[in-house]
Design a protein that fits this description.
Elements: E1 2-4, E2 9-16, E3 20-22, E4 25-32, E5 36-38, E6 43-50, E7 53-55, E8 58-60, E9 63-65, E10 68-71, E11 76-78, E12 81-82, E13 85-88, E14 93-101, E15 117-122
Parallel strand pairs: 1-3, 2-4, 3-5, 4-6, 5-7, 6-8, 6-9, 7-10, 8-11, 9-12, 10-13, 11-14, 12-14
Antiparallel strand pairs: 14-15
Length: 126
């Protein structure tokens, strides 16, 4: 796994088969087969694709997870989210559209609409 320290800035693409922890700054794009943790001092201005994502710092960009997205109480996410499971702690900020695909293999829609996704727009008012 890769660790981006608090005094480090990466501009460009970060990709890999493992996971990563960002305590510094990443600008560009992040694509990981493993998990991504954005620590309290982490700042990401990038579109993110990873297995699972934990945000305790700040993200400006779209996030797509195969599994779970967790926003810690200190987490801030400004962007659209596509994720199977979402956890937002009290105090976290989530501003964007959220799409949660249904279970794999479900391809028939019930009379009320699509069976494969639920969508919500979440904004925090000051």
């Amino acid at each position: 796994d890769t660790v981006i320290g608090p005094e480090t800035t990466i501009r460009g693409s970060l990709s890999g088969a493992g996971g990563a922890r960002v305590d510094g700054r990443v600008e560009g794009e992040i694509t990981l087969d493993g998990d991504l943790i954005i620590g309290e001092t982490g700042s990401v201005q990038a579109d993110v694709r990873a297995r699972n994502v934990i945000v305790a710092g700040a993200v400006r960009g779209n996030v797509e997870c195969e599994g779970a997205l967790e926003l810690a109480s200190t987490g801030q996410l400004y962007g659209d989210v596509k994720v199977r499971s979402l956890s937002v702690r009290q105090g976290a900020i989530l501003c964007g559209n959220t799409t949660m695909p249904g279970e794999p293999g479900r391809d028939e829609a019930p009379a009320g609409g699509p069976a494969d996704q639920a969508t919500a727009t979440v904004k925090r008012s000051e």
